[in-house]
Write a structure and sequence with these properties.
By secondary structure, the protein is α+β, with helices and mostly antiparallel strands. The chain has 8 helices and 30 strands. Helix 2 packs parallel to helix 3.
């Protein structure tokens, strides 16, 4: 069964009922039943607020949050003027049940704990919003209203995108492999300073799954070590920025939680609401646009040879849709740039995750065909930028502060996996080389794993232009006919910059 499509149209101030959500342990209803007394419900406060855009960010925003127990009549109230909130807009509740027996928690479960822990996620889709408008919002439930409980700090804001055709400059950020911890919080501090229009989460989000005996994480319930409560920590950690900045996330291998659904994405669907408009029932595969940029999120698990738990699970549908959607973007003259983002790396010289030969064989020819400007990925926990690539080869050297014209030069691939987890190395200890510290020595080598194997093929390459082993993120400043792509270390130091120009 496809994901329920609950929407709230603010102009009509209507309450919409939610349908049922498929999966044995992921359930959704109109409103969660009053499973606790009113006194107990009063002790539950919303947490982990996070936003997302719909396919049209000038009019569509999703507000999501979590409750630590079942609540009655969860809702959102929004306003364009502080303090003048409209009526409650009913939330869709998605309950996620996780048996303690198949978890390895960071903390002990008390002996009197129930055999199953439940996580309660709430979502409201807002449509028919006004473009380029700041909205105030609060989330609550029957026994908790922040507007009357003396908690002004729980009033948050978001801003819709300008309408298509606007030439207003904007910035977006991107990084993956964040996890929970000190360096992950540093990434959030950077986001708060940059105040981007949105950020792209490039997969491997919470690291609720960690390495088991199989040596590859995700999609292996017999060996994966899992702590569902890490998602609570992840959302609480990110709320400081995610409550006001939409996060558009992609699936990583750590999001394959096979306890919840056959493809492992039941947990993801309970926690996030992405556009998922590739086809009916798609998860983490979607397209949207922000002003002059067309964006596409792909499921990299579909082309991953090292961990084949979900290899080719779309049976070619993702590839066919990608070709068609790239064609639609390129046929629209108001779309000046096309950015594709995913978790796994089509091209990289990193050691741990390597590069995906299936992506090179299946997706890269489409990127060439449709002249994709920029591909962003993570998986390898470091920063790397390629020269522009076409037909698998670098077309010209583009040093930091250089310029790329993708229409003639090819596609630039960037690995931005320094979101917070332990860092990886470059294969065969290729030296770091970045702005002000260029190093052309060594032989950067691409490692491509063979299907379902730890063995791999090695290829020396000349397109690995910038390599930085550290934490940080990518910030992309967009203006008419130009994107300035910067890589920032966690202390804000500029380590790479290129200008991408429309041909």
């Amino acid at each position: 069964m496809s994901e329920p499509r609950q929407e709230a149209r603010y102009s009509r101030r209507s309450l919409f009922r939610a349908g049922a959500m498929g999966g044995a342990v992921v359930t959704a209803g109109t409103l969660l039943p009053a499973a606790a007394t009113a006194a107990a419900a009063q002790r539950l406060r919303p947490l982990g607020r996070h936003l997302a855009y719909g396919a049209d960010p000038s009019r569509q925003v999703v507000i999501s949050w979590q409750e630590l127990g079942a609540v009655t009549r969860p809702y959102v109230r929004i306003a364009t003027t502080a303090g003048k909130f409209g009526p409650p807009i009913a939330a869709e509740a998605r309950k996620l049940d996780s048996e303690l027996a198949w978890q390895q928690s960071e903390h002990d479960f008390p002996p009197h704990a129930p055999a199953t822990m439940s996580q309660h996620y709430l979502h409201v889709r807002l449509t028919d919003l006004s473009p380029a408008t700041t909205y105030f919002y609060v989330v609550g439930h029957q026994d908790y209203d922040p507007t009357t409980s003396g908690r002004p700090g729980e009033i948050a804001t978001f801003r819709t995108a300008p309408a298509v055709g606007s030439t207003e400059p904007f910035t977006f950020t991107a990084f993956g492999d964040q996890g929970v911890g000190y360096n992950a919080r540093r990434a959030n501090s950077q986001l708060a300073d940059l105040a981007p229009a949105f950020t792209l989460g490039l997969g491997n989000l919470s690291y609720a799954i960690t390495a088991g005996t199989a040596g590859v994480e995700g999609g292996h319930t017999d060996t994966d070590e899992y702590d569902a409560a890490r998602w609570d920590s992840y959302f609480a950690q990110n709320e400081i920025v995610a409550a006001g900045t939409p996060w558009m996330v992609a699936l990583g291998n750590h999001e394959m939680e096979d306890w919840y659904s056959a493809n492992g994405y039941g947990g993801f669907k309970a926690r996030f609401t992405m556009p998922d408009n590739a086809w009916n029932g798609a998860t983490g595969i979607y397209s949207w646009r922000y002003q002059n940029v067309g964006l596409i999120s792909l499921d990299g698990n579909d082309i991953c040879y090292r961990n084949t738990a979900n290899y080719d699970h779309t049976k070619g549908k993702q590839l066919k849709w990608l070709d068609a959607q790239l064609g639609k973007f390129r046929a629209d003259r108001t779309v000046e740039f096309v950015v594709v983002y995913l978790h796994h790396a089509p091209y990289s010289t990193a050691d741990a995750g390597g590069a995906e030969s299936a992506a090179q064989q299946k997706w890269a020819p489409l990127f060439d065909k449709h002249k994709v400007d920029l591909v962003l990925n993570a998986h390898n926990r470091l920063y790397e930028r390629t020269d522009p690539i076409r037909a698998g080869k670098g077309t010209k050297q583009v040093k930091p502060k250089g310029t790329v014209v993708p229409a003639t030069d090819g596609t630039t691939y960037i690995t931005a996996g320094g979101g917070g987890q332990g860092l990886d190395k470059f294969y065969r200890d290729a030296p770091e080389s970045y702005l002000g510290h260029e190093d052309n020595s060594g032989s950067p080598t691409m490692k491509c794993f063979k299907k379902n194997s730890a063995s791999h093929t090695d290829t020396k390459v000349g397109w690995s232009r910038v390599r930085y082993r550290g934490y940080g993120l990518v910030a992309v400043e967009v203006a008419p006919a130009r994107m300035t792509v910067r890589a920032l270390a966690e202390d804000g130091t500029l380590i790479d910059e290129i200008t991408v120009r429309r041909g």
